[in-house]
Amino acid sequence: MELNGYRLLLPEGTLDYFDLVDVKESLNEVVIYLEEKNQTPEKYAGQETEGKVFYEPVIVQDFPLRGKKVFLNLLLRRWILKSSNEYISRNWRMVAQGTRLTHDFASFLKELY
Prior knowledge:
- This is Transposase family protein.
- The chain has 113 residues and is mainly β.
- It has helices at 14-17, 103-112, and strands at residues 18-25, 29-36, 49-54, 58-65, 68-75, 77-81, 86-88.
- The protein is elongated and about 50 Å long.
């Protein structure tokens, strides 16, 4: 399946941190699968880390597309700080607080009400 066209549907800046790995389409929905890149958070730059572990996927609803629901399936990465054996991860602000929607989509829905 050609994934390039789906890049246009993603929130701005998403591909700075995620790789688009798959898309599943059905009659009613589109699920875009994204995997966080193995780039250590800037806060820990210069420290020895290992990035092999993922959290459970996070599903975020985005703007509908041509009558289909659109979901982003985010696979978020954790790293191990080798010096302390401590897990670290990025602090994501992509999901609107208290919702399972992207900020843009949540703002759009608030304007409707």
